[in-house]
Design a protein that fits this description.
This protein has 74 residues and is mainly α.
């Protein structure tokens, strides 16, 4: 399924840009790749924070410093 979808998407992109000039197309794809890389980096970074907090909570529970009571807000 993934190969078929990838091939179809690739063929669609090639067909869409078949008459575009290489210089302009390269510029647009370079900007799109930068945005894509930034979004992927952000996604990975957001997941890392959750893993780190999980390890910290596990360490606090193991040490007896964390309990199940809700935070007192006043």
């Amino acid at each position: 399924m993934g190969i078929a979808l990838g091939y179809t998407l690739h063929a669609l992109i090639l067909w869409t840009f078949r008459r575009a000039t290489p210089r302009r197309t390269t510029r647009h794809f370079r900007m799109a790749q930068t945005v894509s890389a930034a979004a992927m980096g952000l996604g990975h970074g957001l997941q890392d924070a959750r893993k780190t907090m999980g390890v910290i909570v596990l360490a606090l529970v193991t040490a007896g410093r964390q309990d199940d009571s809700p935070c007192a807000s006043g």
